[in-house]
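Review form for a predicted model. The reviewer records the input and the model, then writes brief findings.
Reviewer: anonymous (R2)
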Amino acid sequence: MSLYCTLQDLIVYAPPEILEQTTDDPGLEQINQDMITYVITQASDLIDSYVRGRYTVPIVAPYPAMIQDLCARISVYYLYKRQLTRTLPEPVLADYNYCTKLLVAIQQGKINPFPTTSEPTFFASNRSHWADVFTRAAPAGTGQAFQPQVVGAPNTAAGFGQNSWQQYRI
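Model under review:
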């Protein structure tokens, strides 16, 4: 299990006084580090649940800045949410809703918070189904090599221009 942010990341979105108020159940007048770890774990698990299937989880450090930011913002929401007697501030709720929309966009592949080298590799080909015709094979036992046969480009008369790629029947 990876924790995608730290207490210092949470301080960007909630001042230390708010973090103390939302975590200090025993009344020690200090930030409860165990509670901070708990809400960061919850937020990290939520992020994993969204990106699982598109990316390998847990995400390996160094974490993308967007993931750290989302984790911190969601953690602050969880801190407020855990105290049922405290009114959840509207900006915190709006921020949480925005974060979940970003996670959905990451899940759908519309946003990539990772370096482009982490994105799956896709291959393109100039081959089409009509080119996969086995027309010529060397007779069995003759020791002759297979000679590919060049075929013309399809749809050249349809106004698409001359196809510069050569296609081979195999």
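Findings: The chain has a mean pLDDT of 78.
Further findings: Helices lie at 7-11, 16-23, 33-51, 65-81, 90-107.
Recommendation: see findings above.
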